[in-house]
Design goal:
FAD/NAD(P)-binding domain, Polyamine Oxidase, Chain A, domain 2, six-stranded mixed β-sheet, binds flavin-adenine dinucleotide
Amino acid sequence: MNIAIIGAGVSAAAAVSVLKQRGCQVSVFEKSRGPGGRMSSKRALAGSLDLGAQYFTARDVGFMAQVELWCSQGLAQIWSMQPWVSEHGVLSRSDDQQTRYIGTSTMHQMLVPAFGGVDIHYQCKINELSFITSNVSSHSHGQWQLCSEQGECYGGFDAVLLTCPPEQSFQLLIGAPICTQIPRQSLMPCWAVLLELATPTHVSMDAIFVKDGAASWITRQSTKPGRQSARLRDVPEAPEQWLLHFSADFSAQELEASAELITELAAAELVRVLGRTVDVAAALCHRWLYASYNPAIAPCGVLYDAKMQLAIAGDWTLGGRVENAWISGVTAAEQLLSAQHKSGPQR
Ligand SMILES: Cc1cc2nc3c(=O)[nH]c(=O)nc-3n(C[C@H](O)[C@H](O)[C@H](O)COP(=O)(O)OP(=O)(O)OC[C@H]3O[C@@H](n4cnc5c(N)ncnc54)[C@H](O)[C@@H]3O)c2cc1C
């Protein structure tokens, strides 16, 4: 079976792993310059920066086995930090016992092997999908064609798997029956800001869940293993880098604000939560239009149209987070394979 996958995030990596193992020919189309999607790390300021997913957890047995494999291969590791909580103006140590994992050096590192040996097209934004039907030996058979923003077309696919955020999947499938099942508002935005400080704060906290302000999460980036650049690793007073995520509500409210304003608000929020003055030397701001799952919306489950050999996966189909993204990719791949098994080889 010849399958096209749109997106190269966690859910796509999971699907590729299953499909490759079962001998399928897979082509991946990703609009960015590399893999990872919302889990990718960027090279920025003094090292590698996790602007999106901060860590991941594993509760499902299948995903736990996958995480153990990544850890044994040196691609992921436990992030042994004890978070703090800012609530009602008070900072206190959280007593949660959650095991949290991060990718080694970068968040997306562990996805790289999955995409090995696959026909992968980066900087290739798909903006048109067509299902072309033909009557071959008296039964109808369809094939998919994908066209990119740059005007290139790729055809001959027996099946397509979409792993984009819901709004982007919806736009690609307008008119298809499955489209009505996509909950378009299921991902909420997030402003992310990195602040590099000229002088150290001398606070001991590594990560803070913020429940009483505009931010939702604050972490000292350099406390994550492997994130600091080699240049700074041995510098005793290397600049502190604090990453701040604003809450979904605040981010939605300030969606069109300037990066300058968001950076100022982030610095003020850091001062408020840490209870220290900060001296910002450099900053970097990123707006995620689609970030975390909207808990007000019930997950729709992985979507699948057997007639069109079309599946839709992504964290949002199962309730958000890296773990659900992985499970959705595995589920979608298995659905596509089971349909192939029922109908026999198509070509
Ligand atoms: C700020 C932030 C913080 C987060 N924190 C956590 C956390 O702490 N723990 C946790 O578990 N999860 C967290 N998440 C969520 C986690 O990142 C996601 O659940 C997971 O990465 C989703 O993977 P995915 O493959 O489903 O989707 P994505 O990562 O969104 O992958 C979809 C891919 O499709 C590509 N794409 C979209 N449209 C097209 C197109 N037309 N053509 C080609 N390519 C296209 C995109 O570029 C993207 O690479 C966070 C996310 C954000 C943004």
